[in-house]
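User: I've been trying to design a sequence by hand for this structure and keep getting stuck. Would you show me what you'd pick, starting by listing the structure so we're on the same page?

Assistant: Good idea, let's start from the same input. This is the structure you sent:
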């Protein structure tokens, strides 16, 4: 099943409950613009995309991924999930995503900068603070956003920092942005633990993916008293049933470029970490990690999707049968876009928002999205949390479409 077929099926599962018409389904499943370019840098060509899924609620929003496996199908899925995420979070945004099929780990900084600038040269006319607003995603970061902002402003001949978020603080970025996805994910996990009456200091956690999202949440959960016993990155994983020293794991990752070199732990494979006997499994790498092949072997009681699309639709059904609670990506990882929205608002008004204010807004929005999702999930016997999140998100997009006169 393609990634987008899989994404679609999340919506199809609630279409009967929502009594969605063919027109409504078509609207929710179609993309407003699929744009592709070839970036030519230093004699090489790289495929690049910017795809807008929906912009009924406002300008489209979504990150740019640099990865050797980026495809049109993947970017279409990621843009679809962005529309549902911004809708569920109550933001005035639609959804989009971008990608370049490239391995940034093989590039020097100068070439990476040229690729980032080439991306803006290819897509600048479709972007802007009132059109489409990019941000970082897998293997892109604040520095890349800085180069993209510089190229965009050079072309436009004016400053417009609100056109991109996740940029360096000196260029108008938000102090909370780097941590926001993980902070939001932790707020959601804490709320769920409270609902389930679970004790944090008796909870073991495994985290797949030790990048921006995974590393930050590892630190936050560890500081709160959760017991992180395993983490992994693209090279493999580490397990210590007595608990990992997260500061040391972060230092190892920084110095050795992989957690596998951490010395006081057993090495495990990327497959094994998904099947560990833990209370919480945090997925913070890429899509399609839990599939119908390995869902039956999952032993965690809660899965927190910090990554986009890490559990396939078929796997979701198997996990539901096993009473595993999956906290869906469009809720669990919305903290990043919530704080991106504040960064955008700050750039537009010129008001510099304090950390205190940002923390409060993030907390309030995450609690609100969680409560609405959880209440609906509990009120419908057969529902998963994902079903509930999709119903709420789809309703708000369709309502905006209706007010725009695009639906009867
Ligand atoms: P990142 O590039 O900082 O980190 C990705 C990590 O995943 C790296 O440590 C990499 O080694 C690891 N990885 C890759 N393949 C793996 C595999 N097969 N097994 C284990 N680890 C693997 O990216 P990120 O920003 O942390 O994003 C991770 C996920 O979270 C993505 O799905 C992204 O779309 C999603 N997300 C991120 C943000 C954000 O603000 N960073 C916001 C929303 C969603």
């Amino acid at each position: 099943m393609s990634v987008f077929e899989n994404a679609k099926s999340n919506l199809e599962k609630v279409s009967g409950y929502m009594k969605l018409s063919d027109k409504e389904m078509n609207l929710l499943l179609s993309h407003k613009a699929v744009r592709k370019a070839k970036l030519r840098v230093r004699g090489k060509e790289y495929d690049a995309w910017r795809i807008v899924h929906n912009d009924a609620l406002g300008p489209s929003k979504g990150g740019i991924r640099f990865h050797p496996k980026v495809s049109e199908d993947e970017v279409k899925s990621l843009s679809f999930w962005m529309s549902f995420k911004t809708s569920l979070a109550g933001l005035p945004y639609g959804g989009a995503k971008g990608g370049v099929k490239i391995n940034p780990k093989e590039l020097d900084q100068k070439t990476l900068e040229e690729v980032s600038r080439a991306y803006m040269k290819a897509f600048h006319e479709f972007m802007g603070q009132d059109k489409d607003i990019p941000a970082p995603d897998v293997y892109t970061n604040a520095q890349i956003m800085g180069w993209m902002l510089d190229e965009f402003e050079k072309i436009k001949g004016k400053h417009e920092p609100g056109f991109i978020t996740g940029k360096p603080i000196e260029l108008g970025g938000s102090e909370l942005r780097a941590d926001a996805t993980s902070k939001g994910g932790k707020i959601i996990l804490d709320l769920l633990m409270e609902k389930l009456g679970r004790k944090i200091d008796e909870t073991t956690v495994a985290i797949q993916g030790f990048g921006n999202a995974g590393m930050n949440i590892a630190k936050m959960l560890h500081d709160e008293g959760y017991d992180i016993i395993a983490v992994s990155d693209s090279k493999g994983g580490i397990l210590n049933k007595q608990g990992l020293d997260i500061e040391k794991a972060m230092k190892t990752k920084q110095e050795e470029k992989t957690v596998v070199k951490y010395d006081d732990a057993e090495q495990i494979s990327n497959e094994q970490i998904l099947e560990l006997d833990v209370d919480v499994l945090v997925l913070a790498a890429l899509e399609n990690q839990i599939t119908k092949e390995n869902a039956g072997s999952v032993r965690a009681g809660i899965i927190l999707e910090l990554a986009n699309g890490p559990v396939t639709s078929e796997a979701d059904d198997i996990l539901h049968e096993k009473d595993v609670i999956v906290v869906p990506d469009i809720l669990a990882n919305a903290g990043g876009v919530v704080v991106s929205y504040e960064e955008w608002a700050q750039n537009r008004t010129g008001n510099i928002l304090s950390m205190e204010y940002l923390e409060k807004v993030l907390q309030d929005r995450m609690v609100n999205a969680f409560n609405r999702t959880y209440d609906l999930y509990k009120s419908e016997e057969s529902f998963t949390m994902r079903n509930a999140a999709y119903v709420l998100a789809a309703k708000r997009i369709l309502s905006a479409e209706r007010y725009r006169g695009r639906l009867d």
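That's my pick for every position. To get oriented when you compare it with your attempt: Residues 137-139, 181, 208-214, 232-234, 270, 284-286, 306-308, 333, 336 surround nicotinamide-adenine-dinucleotide (CB under 6 Å). The chain has 13 helices and 13 strands.
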